[in-house]
Design goal:
Layout (H helix, E strand, L loop, with lengths): L7 H9 L25 E7 L2 E8 L7 E5 L11 H5 L7 E5 L5 H6 L10 H18 L5 E6 L1 H12 L4 E7 L5 H18 L3 H10 L8 H17 L17 H19 L23 E6 L7 H10 L5 E6 L8 H19 L1
Parallel strand pairs: 3-4, 3-5, 5-6, 6-7, 7-8
Antiparallel strand pairs: 1-2, 2-4
Helix pairs in contact: 1-9, 4-5, 6-7, 6-8, 7-8
């Protein structure tokens, strides 16, 4: 999401000549459980929303609760990194990763998406369809919904559309409103830069002015500054988290990841500020949830500021809800965030299921 679009045209031309990453399997659907009750671990293209979308399933026991991860970006799938980050969860949960429409291997498989607009409504529909599919194939009525950053807004839309499919929603880096989140991000970052006497950052921020923006580069420019400030105030994730698994370490997968990321970025911010982010405001939606809601926010998050997430959290109603702030944590996942997610699942969500 944060990269700019200078290489977009070249990437699109490359991808239009591809039928999908050479290492990816053919479309097989999902077979679910083996006769002994263990999970049939799969990496497969699955028909969702009229196109083939990339889904992976990991776990050891079909009786374990299922977790469906909704990645951020948009355009930043977790499937290449999931084994390193979430592999230790597989004895407790069945884990489902999904490359969303316009992202990763799904992008590489569907070059026509390069000419199509993305919408949060269509992508939420894809997610609901996937949730129903994976739950049914593994013998469950519901799954646990986990979303971060862009994926947190998409997950909320999914939970609102089909609460009967989900045990609970666990969000991190909660994105609430394009207008409110950008305003808070710019304001907080400007305050920090002025307090530190960071003339270069102040000049860059003053040059772009406060949002809303019509220049698609401004969002990325702000994110580069916030990432630098977050890095100084947080505990970073292990470097090996962000090394693609061997199956994804190919030129084809690299091109698909980059192409989807750049396409999704433009769809997100828009060429003149009219992208999906400008139309997002969860406060305008129904604030009554039929499922429990658990939010995990980094104290040093300068992208989805805790103050904005907590205001939305306080406004919603849910059968059960918890808001957790993590010190030394920013917007991007680190060990503290992943451990907090696992603790919430173990201690608060699983007891609701069993």
């Amino acid at each position: 999401m944060q990269r700019l679009c200078g290489r977009l045209a070249a990437t699109v031309l490359l991808l239009l000549a591809m039928t999908g990453p050479a290492t990816a399997q053919e479309s097989t659907g999902l077979t679910g459980c083996l006769p002994d009750g263990t999970v049939a671990e799969q990496d497969a293209f699955v028909a969702i929303g009229g196109i083939e979308q990339w889904v992976t399933v990991r776990g050891t026991d079909c009786a374990n609760p299922m977790v469906l991860f909704i990645h951020g970006g948009p355009g930043n799938p977790m499937s290449p990194f999931a084994d390193a980050i979430y592999g230790g969860w597989e004895d407790e949960f069945t884990l489902v990763q999904w490359d969303q429409r316009g992202a990763g291997r799904t992008w590489g498989r569907n070059p026509s998406v390069a000419e199509a607009d993305l919408s949060i409504e269509q992508m939420a529909g894809d997610g609901v369809e996937l949730a129903a599919l994976v739950a049914g194939r593994l013998g469950h009525d519901k799954v646990i919904l986990v979303g971060g950053s862009w994926g947190s807004a998409l997950a909320v839309k999914m939970a609102r559309a089909r609460p009967d499919l989900f045990h609970a929603y666990v969000g991190s880096g909660q994105l609430v409103s394009g207008a409110a989140n950008l305003e808070a991000s710019y304001r907080l970052q400007m305050g920090l830069a002025r307090a530190e006497g960071d003339a270069e950052a102040v000049a860059a921020l003053e040059a772009m002015g406060p949002p809303p923006w019509t220049n698609p580069r401004h969002f990325g420019a702000l994110r580069r500054i916030t990432r630098r400030y977050e890095a100084r105030a947080t505990v970073a994730a292990p470097a090996d988290w962000w090394v693609p698994a061997p199956a994804y370490a190919t030129a084809e997968d690299g091109a698909a990841y980059e192409g989807g990321e750049e396409h999704s970025y433009i769809q997100f911010v828009g060429m003149e500020g009219e992208g999906m982010l400008s139309r997002l405001d969860l406060l305008r939606d129904d604030l009554a949830f039929a499922i429990p809601v658990f939010l995990i926010q980094g104290e040093q998050d300068l992208v989805t500021a805790p103050e904005v997430a907590e205001a939305w959290f306080n406004a919603i109603s849910a059968p059960q809800k918890t808001f957790l702030r993590l010190p030394a944590t920013g917007h991007d996942p680190n060990v503290a965030m992943i451990e907090a997610q696992r603790a919430v699942l173990r201690e608060q969500v699983v007891p609701l299921i069993r």
